[in-house]
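Handout, page 2. Input:
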Amino acid sequence: MPSSTSTDHGRRPPLAGTADEAVAGRVRERFVADGTPVTAAAVVSAVRAEPGAALLGDTRLLRLADQVHGDLVGAGPIGPLLADPSVTDVLVNGTQVWVDRGDGLTQVATPFRSVDEVRRLAQRLAAACGRRLDDGCPYADARLPDGTRLHAVLPPIATDGPYLSLRTFRQRPFQLAELVQRRMVPAGLAGLLEAVVAARLAYLVTGGTGSGKTTMLNTMLGLVPARERIVLVEDAAELRPYHPHVVSLQARTANVEGSGSVDLGALVRQALRMRPDRLVVGECRGAEVVDLLAALNTGHEGGAGTLHANAATDVPARLEALGLLGGLPRAALHAQVAAALQVLIHLRRTAVGRIVDAVCLLLPSGPDRLVTVVPAWRRDAGPQPAATALARLCVERGVPAPDVLTGRVR
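Output:
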């Protein structure tokens, strides 16, 4: 969606003055009112047709046309930022712009001339996704055609806004070797991740916001043998693994009349009828965790999902909370988890980037058989108490024990 002619890092030279602003405003309004297809040539022609355009000069006219085109299509002035493969998040606070390239937020040169321009961009992007964004509905959550996730909030809810939060989408998923090269995955751990997939162990990828859960899951799904069918269930379509046989179901929100919604729980039940070899829930955030656990307990091995959790040890409590939303009592929830899930892969954000922090087993313990998280490998310490048990699980399923669990590789 980015504009191809904007300058580097999203910075645009300001218009020469109020006269240029007036011309830009009239041209924008004309395109909106007429419904004319917005092409670069059409915008240039429209600017040339404005009174006094002959006095602008070619350079000034083309710059004005470029900015009007950026305002009407794509992501406008932040298009170059979204096109930058190193950028994961673009945040707009009023006219301030911040980006995250994997090592924390940094402020960049402001490409916006006014908060009105930010508001127009937010409303246009939301409208392109079929979402309403105005004074009557001052916030919207949507997904752009290229997969970028958009959240926008308008004043007066956004006190110094508008606020835009955009999470970029990588068109090509990372291969495992690339994650090793980026030091997200230690070289010795790659064999363990491959073994988890090959042994058809069910796993959760956990971590805080922006820790790389979707990236990791996308990569691991690319390790699934080509002869197997992957069925994805997601609230918003983010997973696009490099695999020849993937089908995806996406939840649907209610329309303006409040009807027509389809939640993740319903989609999980539909997925079970689609002959999945691997059933994957993109993110467990509600009662659908009950349906996922039920599905994984009906012979669907090798399933996966992601879950928000600040620490690996927080996962049982997080699952309990979600289970209660689905009416599943604590004891029943733990029994389902113990039977359905084996491995937990926890990620963490650090000052130097996103890393795999630990690989753990979910094991029942004590007289009440509550599930606890037992580390099998830690980034800072290597093999842990559950390493032998995880190696045994792999061997029992015909996969050699990964070297990283035996201490031969760190």
